[in-house]
Amino acid sequence: MKVIFIHGLGQKKESWNSVCDNLALEDVELVDLIQVQNRGQVDYKNLYAEVKAICQNTDEKVNIVGISLGGLLALNYAIDFSDKVNSLVLINSQFKMPKILLSIQNIIFRFIPKRKFETMGFAKENFINIANSIKELDFTDRLKDIQCKVLVINGDKDTVNRKASRELSRLIPNSELVILNQSGHEANIDNPVELAKIINNFYHELL
Q1: Rounded to 5°, angle at Cα 28 from 24 and 30
Q2: CB neighbours of 37 closer than 8 A, spacing ≥ 6?
């Protein structure tokens, strides 16, 4: 069973390492969104093209795990190619972007020195480009088209995404919501062992 992991904005593919170390999986691929900027300017469209290419580089149905921005990309792919996705795990993810919150976030980004972004993967201008390019995304009317089994995970301290997580589990036909204890927005870093346990249980039920 192939499982593809997509990291969030401000993370790197290595952000999944502690989770994967505790997973009972053999065929795992960690998507590296950061390297997309080596080919030029980055926005949501570029990132989605990267995810699409990776997911379609196999003849079997894929299982996708995405956190935050990674969850948004995973959700997008599952909607566009519902017949090619076996399962979906969405962690602290949105499906209709909060425009006001993103606008405030971008204002903050503009005042942060470029050097502060070095440890977060993307260059400053690409952080701003990505945030601007996702403002209009709204998958509300297409959630019903998702055919695979879906696990929605929300960190107990990530209240910003609490409502979206509940709505995702309500609007996606074959889905369930699990609250991850002792975890904020970066669940794969905050509580990787417990997160891995939840994911393991989900895949065990799929088999």
Answers
A1: 130
A2: 122, 123, 126
Q: For the chain, give every domain's residue range.
A: 2-96+141-206
Q: Quote the distance between the C-alpha of residue 79 and its chain's center.
A: 14
pTM of this structure: 0.95
CATH 3.40.50.1820 fits 2-96+141-206, yes or no: yes
Record the tokens describing residue 197, joined without a space. Answer: 């346990």
Under DSSP, the state recorded for 50 is H
What is the rounded CA–CA span in Å between residue 60 and residue 85? 9
The answer to whether 22 touches 143, Cβ cutoff 8 Å, is: no
- Residue with tokens 């995973």, as numbered in its chain: 74
pLDDT tens digits along 164-202: 999 999 999 999 999 999 999 999 999 999 999 999 999
pLDDT per residue over 96-117, tens digit each? 998 777 777 778 888 788 887 8
**Token pair of 145 as six digits:** 């088209």
C-alpha span between 75 and 65 (Å, rounded): 10
